[in-house]
Amino acid sequence: MSGFEHHSTEREARSDLPGRDRRPDEGQRQDMLRRYLGAVAAVSAAHADEQSPRPKEPPPILHQDELAPAPLRVRDVMSVPAVSVPGETPFLEIVRTLSREHLGAVPVVDADDQVMGVVSESDLLAKAAVRAETSRPGPIRRLREHRLYEKSHGETAATLMTSPAITVHPSTPVADAAWLAARSRLKRMPVVDHRGRLVGVVSRIDLVRALVRDDAKIREEIETRIIRHVFLLDPGAFEVTVENGAVDVSGKVDGSLIPTLLESIEEIDDVVEVSDHLTAV
């Protein structure tokens, strides 16, 4: 992801967080989105690295206990069933569906449940604006906004929708879906099978939750994997707190172990910083 794309995506994330009526958990939510953007940027860098020419190397031979866990797939985090509307759905019924389901967009499907496109609040807003106009726009405005005016005269989901829809498959890795959502600035994406039929929907918050582990899971990994299994120490002798990815660790430990213990904690995914309050004995 280029610097411009990263800046644009981060700016959109901030625009989703209104400055007024600030929620008590707003700071945590902003931090979650920043960590999400960092994960997306890392995936984008990996994509670019994969496309760079490099000498072929034989694949490493891994033992069973060295095998990495399978990456999360869209099927693991998508919502089912997905709300959708048929192509012949009238304008007002689409409005009612979005309002009733508290959605900003829905997939439009044909008789075989194949996704034809997506109709969003933006598509409906243009239609509503044309309906509310009391005078015809001038020729310059009609020329400048030709496509918008053409679409706004539609009466059904099929004529109002944006097509083709950007979709993902159930087997798509979550990281790749997040990268696609960020680049396309989408909050929701239809999930389709190999025939293009709608099987679910995945939202940006679904991807955030999958990519960014919560503080409790980070703490569990520190206490179980790092302290107990790697360093063979008693987790009860330490106090570990995690807040928005920031770790604070205290306790008494052999001074020679402190540097490597802190380094191991810093290398855990989603840890943003480590505060050292360990006492050497």
Automatic annotation (TrEMBL):
Signal peptide: none annotated. The keyword S-adenosyl-L-methionine does not apply. SUPFAM superfamilies: CBS-domain pair (SSF54631). Residues 78-135, 161-217 form the CBS domain. Residues 214-281 form the BON domain. Keywords: CBS domain. Coiled coil: none annotated. Residues 1-64 are annotated as: Disordered. PANTHER family: CBS DOMAIN-CONTAINING PROTEIN CBSX3, MITOCHONDRIAL (PTHR43080), OS02G0818000 PROTEIN (PTHR43080:SF29). This is CBS domain-containing protein. It comes from Streptomyces lutosisoli.
